[in-house]
Amino acid sequence: MQDNEKTEMSVVSILLGTLIAFCVFGVIAYGAYLSSTKSPASLTSTEIPAPVGEALAKIYFDVGSAELPAEAGGAIQTVSDKALASPKRIVLISGFHDPSGDPAQNAELARQRAEAAKEALIAAGVPEAQIRLRKPEVIPGDEDMQEARRVDIRVQ
Fold first, then answer.
1. Contact 100/53 with Cβ under 8 angstroms?
2. Beta strands 137-138 and 91-97: pairing type?
3. Other Cβ atoms within 10 Å of 76 Cβ, number
4. Which CATH class name applies to 47-155?
């Protein structure tokens, strides 16, 4: 009988070990799945995706100004509606500037314009965690200078 009990204990040990291994694998696989389907709120501030497709809205600013133009209200509402209807998507804001003048000053103005758009979206109800700002971008010198005074907004 002693050999029979040892055999039963070996079978139980193997089954228990296998069950534990499957549980550990399942937890690891589930964690990998969750990390591959991050919601905007779980993205870190360093995780800023590249823009995809055409901008949902383009807001053009006056020369030297970061004040949101009055006519931007419709664009902000359009983006807000889309963002609120898609809470797992992010709102990506890109500010632009031209290569002339002081690059640091131009980049700061582009950042302030993007911040103005962000604040308007937050005021319209879009959660701040859903919004990402890209680093200001320089447009080529041969472009229309109005394009250098814009902010593009995407919901992606």
1. no
2. parallel
3. 20
4. alpha beta
